[in-house]
Design the sequence.
């Protein structure tokens, strides 16, 4: 018997499911091969640990069958024993669980996945985050309702402000390239009026920094952003 | 020394060059003269006076609208620069006019419409004046004054970024009126018998009620709120650094 054959049979040997002749060959090989002896010892420890754990969970004893050393993470349920899944998993690890244990495991897994997903979503939709930014962009193509629905903690004014800033940013970039083609008078009008609005924005922002809950200033800030967008749209049409 | 008698063709070439230069100068001078002149666009559109609408998008130059009870919209535009181009379209009772070339000079519009005509006037650099209309009115300019005189429509929107907004007209109990000047005066003359609710924002809080007794108004507040008379029509005002002035119509 070589090491590969011994590894394949070892699990059945531990379960007492091999014939006497085969068991004798395995024992012979184990007495000569240190590596397989180590594997045998590890499997014995694993079986013992499993047998100590299962009675504490209140279920029938867990039996380990085949345990190739490289694959230890796949489980199946006894009721699946006739399915192709079983035939596939039978090559690796088969852990027999009762239905309540299986349902508990599935529930626990779902709970963990849901918790992780929820945490990710919450973090992603904080103002200024990448996903929040992407949602703002999508609003510009007509999905404001979607953005509001996905961002319940944000006030409507904050949402509108974010959308306006996004639109303004895009139009400003576009106009920066095009305004060199305007006649000088139009360019002066644009820059003068932009300066007026930008100054308003700065003043409103300064007031809001001191008093973030100043509703009138928040309204004025929004009006300034709207006016800036209107202006950019007017000039973008040139 | 080269003698011209040895190259008689030189005289011909020299003469040709002088002649060409003179002709070119004449053409340039003529072009300069033409560009100083106004070209005029004048057109009349037949419309139903009850349902007519005019949408005008100008760039530079004043727009003046008056009314006449006729079945037509008359537009006269004086184009100061030869590069200015106008595109006009009419679909049923809706007339649209647009100044196309952004490098154009001022275009002075003089427009006559039926009094109930719906007006949508936009201009970037120029004053807009509208007189005596009764229809829906939307007027926007970036760098010019807006003057609305003797207006009796129920929906009025007037926005200027840095120009004045002057309104003299009725306030209908069912009406909606929006006035915004970011950096300049908003001057409203309304009938003493008007009824309206006031809302909006004046960042500097500089509001002069002109003797109107507006209930619940808080002087000096950035938030504009209050009601006058029975409080029917809605007036929404927004200014950042401008002043707001009310006057009672005599």
Sequence:
């Amino acid at each position: 018997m070589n090491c590969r054959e011994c590894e394949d049979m070892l699990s059945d040997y531990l379960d007492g499911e091999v014939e006497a002749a085969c068991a004798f060959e395995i024992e012979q090989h184990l007495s000569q091969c240190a590596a397989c002896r180590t594997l045998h010892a590890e499997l014995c420890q694993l079986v013992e640990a499993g047998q100590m754990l299962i009675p504490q969970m209140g279920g029938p004893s867990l039996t380990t069958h085949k345990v190739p050393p490289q694959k230890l993470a796949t489980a199946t349920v006894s009721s699946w024993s006739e399915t192709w899944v079983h035939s596939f998993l039978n090559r690796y690890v088969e852990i027999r669980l009762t239905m309540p244990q299986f349902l508990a495991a599935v529930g626990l897994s779902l709970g963990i996945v849901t918790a992780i997903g929820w945490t990710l979503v919450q973090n992603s939709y904080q103002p200024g985050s990448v996903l929040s930014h992407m949602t703002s962009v999508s609003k510009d193509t007509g999905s404001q309702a979607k953005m509001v629905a996905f961002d319940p903690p944000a006030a409507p004014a904050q949402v509108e402000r974010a959308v306006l800033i996004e639109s303004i940013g895009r139009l400003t970039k576009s106009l920066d390239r095009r305004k060199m083609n305007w006649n000088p008078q139009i360019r002066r009008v644009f820059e003068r009026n932009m300066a007026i609005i930008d100054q308003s924005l700065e003043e409103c922002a300064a007031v809001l920094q001191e008093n973030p809950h100043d509703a009138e200033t928040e309204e004025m800030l929004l009006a300034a952003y709207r006016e800036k967008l209107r202006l950019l749209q007017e000039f973008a049409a040139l | 020394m080269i003698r011209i008698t040895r190259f008689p063709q030189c005289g011909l070439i020299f003469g040709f060059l002088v002649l060409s230069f003179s002709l070119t100068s004449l053409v340039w001078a003529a072009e300069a003269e033409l560009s100083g002149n106004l070209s005029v666009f004048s057109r009349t559109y037949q419309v139903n006076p009850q349902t007519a609408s005019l949408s005008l998008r100008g760039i530079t130059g004043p727009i003046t609208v008056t009314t006449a009870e006729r079945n037509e919209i008359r537009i006269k535009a004086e184009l100061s620069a030869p590069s200015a181009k106008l595109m006009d379209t009419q679909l049923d009772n809706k007339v649209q006019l647009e100044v196309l070339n952004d490098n154009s000079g001022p275009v002075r519009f003089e427009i006559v419409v039926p009094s109930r005509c719906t007006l949508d006037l936009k201009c970037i650099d120029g004053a807009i004046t509208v007189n005596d209309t009764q229809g829906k009115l939307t007027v926007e300019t970036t760098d010019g004054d807006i003057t609305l005189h003797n207006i009796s429509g129920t929906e009025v929107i007037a926005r200027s970024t840095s120009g004045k907004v002057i309104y003299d007209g009725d306030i209908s109990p069912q009406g909606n009126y929006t006035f915004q000047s970011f950096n300049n005066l908003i001057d409203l003359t309304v009938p003493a018998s008007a009824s309206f609710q006031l809302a909006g924002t004046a960042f500097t809080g500089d509001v002069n009620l002109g003797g109107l007794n507006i209930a619940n108004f808080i002087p000096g507040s950035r938030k504009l709120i209050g009601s006058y008379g029975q409080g029917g029509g809605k007036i929404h005002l927004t200014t950042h650094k401008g002043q707001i002035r009310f006057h009672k119509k005599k």
